[in-house]
């Protein structure tokens, strides 16, 4: 990730080239640095460092818009990608003028950059992994996991987002960001395992020792791996499980999906779709998110309520869908490799309660603790009907205590129906890309 002054210098040079001979132009810088240290079977693997930077050019001429990208940020590379974009635009059929590019925006800025993350190198990451491995080995356990540091706008899979943007209408924006995350699984001799994870913009916000203690305590729970009989079970879902289940909500909360009748909000605006204790928003400025304050084309992100007191609100809008429907743009345009440019609720926040996870477990006479969700498949986006399998970190609850590990278990349910029967909500934390609470609910499960 480049410093602000250098990023703006590159954008200015790229824009001067891209804007020649067209009605309007936009340039974006994306990518950044990804450093990952993994460990498995109580052995630290060689650290991996990955840097990837991409420049995206979008030009508009006579209503025709073309977007192209390059990893060559030299003067020649900028000229080549700009020329290709202009040539492609000229060969497209002319159409009525579209929405065009956004005007300069006012942004709700978030402090998402931690200088300490720049110094969290391979040695520091290895030390964190080493302490977890030693603690596991002393108890006869096997540790595996990873410590990852991201700088800029780069996903764990190496996919680039954007961190700086400029266009010929005078829009100019930059967002520095760091993310530091730890995932840890401890496996005992019976094959059962515990799982903990956390992520933050700041190194100091992570608590590796506390996370290791939690993982140790659960991995040492005695008893053989239990398998469930099919049926409905009272379950306490940890934040990681709730965050995973909310994953399919993001792409199905957009105005395009809503207008096409594919969204869980379609045809239900103002109607109750979950229990009254459910409030779901998209809010990049939440302290546990601290997300980029502008979308893929520089429109300012706004807080959007999707579900309020169980009632359908929303959806989120890009500039194009807002103009098309007469709504206000909320800054939620994204580029998805499968569906192209669309809208998505990228910073989900579900309101929680005051109870801790221990409170929810302690109030459960007989039930389950679901720690992690594995493969998840969305079957019907209208009902948010999904199927999947639980993974590590699942346990049987008896008398308010964790008494035995739980084998992987399959499930199939409508998330809307599930959220209509939530008995209790815990306090919130960041997990699986969302800010969510743990919750207690009756869950339909059957053996994997």
Keywords:
nine-stranded antiparallel beta sheet; 10 helices; PmbA/TldD fold; 3 domains; 448 residues; alpha+beta; 24 strands
What does this structure look like?
- It is a single chain.
- A hairpin with a 2-residue loop joins strand 20 (395-398) and strand 21.
- The strands form 4 sheets. Strands 1, 2, 3, 4, 5, 6, 7, 8 and 9 form a 9-stranded antiparallel beta sheet that branches. Strands 10, 17, 18, 19, 20, 21, 22, 23 and 24 form a 9-stranded mixed beta sheet that branches.
- 21% of the residues lie in helices and 37% in strands.
- The mean pLDDT is 93.
- The protein is globular, with a radius of gyration of 24 Å.
- It has 3 domains: 4-186, PmbA/TldD superfamily (PmbA/TldD fold, 2-Layer Sandwich), CATH 3.30.2290; 223-245 and 352-447, no CATH class; 252-345, no CATH class.
- The protein has helices spanning 4-18, 75-91, 115-118, 122-138, 208-219, 239-246, 255-259, 319-325, 357-362, 415-419, and strands at 24-40, 43-44, 48-61, 64-70, 142-153, 162-167, 172-174, 178-187, 193-200, 231-237, 280-282, 304-308, 311-312, 333-336, 340-343, 348-350, 366-370, 373-380, 385-390, 395-398, 401-405, 409-414, 422-431, 434-447.
- The longest helix has 17 residues, at 75-91.
- It has 448 residues and is an alpha+beta fold.
- The chain has 10 helices and 24 strands.
